[in-house]
Amino acid sequence: MIDRRAFLFGAAGAAVLARPLLGAMPRLPWDALAKRLSGTVVRPGDAGFAAYARPNNLRYASRLPLGIARCRTARDVSASILWARENGVPLAARSGGHSYAGYSTTGGLLIDLREMDAVVFDESTGIATLGGGSRNATFEAAFRHRNLAITHGRCPSVGIAGLVLGGGIGFNMRAHGITADRLVATEIVTADGAIHRLADGDDLMWACRGAGGGNFGINTSFSFRTYEVGTRTVFNLIWDVRPEDVFARLVDILDRAPDALGSKVSAIAPTATSGIKVQLLGQFEGTPADLRAMLADVYAIAEPTGSVVREPYWKAQAFLAEPGVPAYYQERSRFFDRRIDHRAVAAIFDGLRRYPKTAREAAFKIFQTGGRVNARKPGDTAFVHRSSSWLSSIELYWQKTTPDAVLEQNLAWLDAYYATIVPLAGGGAYQNFIDPSLVDWKAAYHGSNLERLEAIKRRVDPSGTFAFAEAIPG
Ligand SMILES: Cc1cc2nc3c(=O)[nH]c(=O)nc-3n(C[C@H](O)[C@H](O)[C@H](O)COP(=O)(O)OP(=O)(O)OC[C@H]3O[C@@H](n4cnc5c(N)ncnc54)[C@H](O)[C@@H]3O)c2cc1C
């Protein structure tokens, strides 16, 4: 049997094999790095090392850095990159640490931006500038009393860097575009240590709007045009009766919903004690009564459990928040450029019924796209996916104690299931649900933008300093 845990570590590490083998590395001048930083250097054995090193996806937690540069300024980031290059040490940047494939782990120098989370707001323009290590929670803390937002995610600890650099989906996207569509400027440190302030018209700025984190340099700030938000009706409804009919009807209704409605529909795999369930989660500008009327046909199939509440915007976001605690998982995504018709629904439920029921949990999820997401053309920004109505993702969670053979069986289920969805969906894969098993990842993430991205990579990172298994090739 192939050990896929080991195989995947190998794949993620492949890009650094051209550098000196870490075992054979001479003593590294860590003191020299520490002297060049206003932040700190944390080494194995130092207080906090284990917590700083741990990624959200524990599947990759055994890949430990030789040292962590806890940066406070763009100059710190520049000095860290140059130190790593001078000493032949591979590097990775980390902001929120939520890369699905563990691409913010490294066996070399981890450049950790989480202390760079200052927020500056320009009242006259409505532009908010966030430090490169900010998280969803940073934005919320700064703007919850002003009722301003950008398109953000539901997990407070996801990094704004990873979110915006790979596009950024959220319940506001149909009304306001993806996170990257609200980005007006960014500061980035490139492989040569230079600090650049980018705005419209720069090729690298174009690339920072959706090509994916970790490809071109390390971004140390992001400026967004905010928008006002008011009251929202938010809902979390669950059906456990006739789930296939409920799912099909929900998709049909939501396909016709106004752009101000943001939703996610999950078909949750059966467990040893319960059948398939369907969950509808989302937000809406109308009232609970409007929502009830809109969903009347689904309520006619079966009454859901759960709740619907109407709250000021940020209180409503607390209702929708997901904790995102570290766990063992893999996700495989595909944009539905085609309708989710009866054939697709049948395939979705057939796949769920085949779930071995031996991992921690699994689900088939769809996030409603369309609206302003599709208002831009594929080449307007690096985020190429501009013609879908849903983004699907199959999630699989397991535990540390899950035996290898059981994990192998579940991953085989995930792959077989995914293979049935790809031709039905017809779109690419989401670069922020980065998937170490994806074979056609260059085309699936970047489509017709790939050639331009490769040219930018050759220009700004000719030595391939920013490397990982699914990095844009130069
Ligand atoms: C619980 C959970 C909830 C999620 N919810 C959403 C959601 O609602 N919407 C959505 O679109 N996505 C969501 N995602 C996916 C998420 O957007 C991506 O995983 C994203 O890459 C995470 O960014 P990060 O900064 O937290 O991760 P990291 O692991 O720190 O970084 C991700 C990648 O970007 C690189 N990178 C990190 N910081 C920088 C920087 N400052 N400059 C350049 N490169 C950098 C890293 O090296 C790595 O390759 C979610 C993920 C999880 C685990």
- Biggest sheet, open or closed, and with what strands and sense? 7 strands, antiparallel
CATH fold call of the largest domain = Vanillyl-alcohol Oxidase, Chain A, domain 3
User: What is the architecture of the largest domain at the second tier of CATH?
Assistant: 3-Layer(aba) Sandwich
Give the number of DSSP strands. 18
Structural class: alpha+beta
What is the approximate shape? Answer: globular
**What is the spatial order of strands in the main beta sheet?**
15-12-14-13-17-18-16
What portion of the residues fall into strands of 2 or more residues? 15-25%
Q: What does the radius of gyration come to?
A: 22 Å
Separation of termini?
Answer: 34 Å
Instruction: Tell me the number of helical segments per DSSP (H or I, 4 or more residues long).
Output: 16
The bound ligands are:
flavin-adenine dinucleotide
Low-pLDDT parts are: 1-21
Polypeptide structure, described:
- This protein is an alpha+beta fold and 474 residues long.
- It folds into 3 domains: 4-112, 2-Layer Sandwich (Uridine Diphospho-n-acetylenolpyruvylglucosamine Reductase, domain 2); 119-228 and 447-460, Uridine Diphospho-n-acetylenolpyruvylglucosamine Reductase, domain 3 (2-Layer Sandwich); 231-312 and 322-439, Vanillyl-alcohol Oxidase, Chain A, domain 3 (3-Layer(aba) Sandwich).
- Helix content is 30%, strand content 22%.
- The protein is built from 16 helices and 18 strands.
- It has helices spanning 4-13, 30-36, 49-53, 74-86, 136-143, 160-165, 173-176, 203-208, 243-254, 288-294, 296-301, 313-320, 342-353, 404-425, 441-446, 450-460; strands at 40-42, 67-70, 91-94, 109-112, 119-122, 127-131, 148-149, 183-189, 195-199, 218-225, 227-228, 231-239, 262-268, 277-284, 305-312, 328-336, 361-368, 390-398.
- The strands form 4 sheets. The protein has a 7-stranded antiparallel sheet with strand order 15-12-14-13-17-18-16, with helices on both faces.
- A hairpin with a 4-residue loop joins strand 5 and strand 6 (127-131).
- Helix 13 (342-353) runs antiparallel to helix 14.
- The protein starts with a helix and ends in a 14-residue tail after the last helix.
- Mean pLDDT is 95; it is low at 1-21.
- The structure holds flavin-adenine dinucleotide.
- The site of flavin-adenine dinucleotide (FAD) has 34 residues, from strand 3, helix 6 and strand 10.
